[in-house]
Amino acid sequence: MDTRNDMILWQAVKQGDRIAFDRLYHLYVSPLFAAVYKHLRRREDAEDIIQEAFLDCWEKRAEITIESSVFNYLYSMARYKTLRFLKLNSHQAGQLQGLTELLQQHASFAEYTVSEQRLRQLEAALDHEMEALPHQMKKVLSLRVNDGMSAADIAGNLLISPHTVKNHLAKVRKRLRQVMLPND
Description:
mainly alpha, 8 helices, elongated
């Protein structure tokens, strides 16, 4: 990796040169993907993190100052995003484990029943909340759920950032959770 040429490319990127950015992307996408994949072992998640890192780099290029190595900067960014991803997902896994243990301690699934009326109420509340979602949120949710698209693919399809896609999905989850568990 030629640091001097990378710094020249980076200076061009800072000026908005998309071709220079593409060259940096093609130089480093494979080694960065390999480093992230080694920790996650899920191709889609690794791709999302790398795409998010490069997208952040492009969007924030004017504010970013790289002193020594473009690769080191990108690697650090990808590593940080990977650690954050692992932390968020291990927290969710921990919550799921805690919920499973709680259910096992207090009741079996067979003992837990929900009245037909309550099921209809929940279904109506969910339908109402889905209808009340903003148009863009509905499109993001549809592409994720119905088409199984990744955040990066949805972002490309709708011409928005992957971060915006993830924010939309988080807001949908929060809204639906409030409908299902109103006392939270």
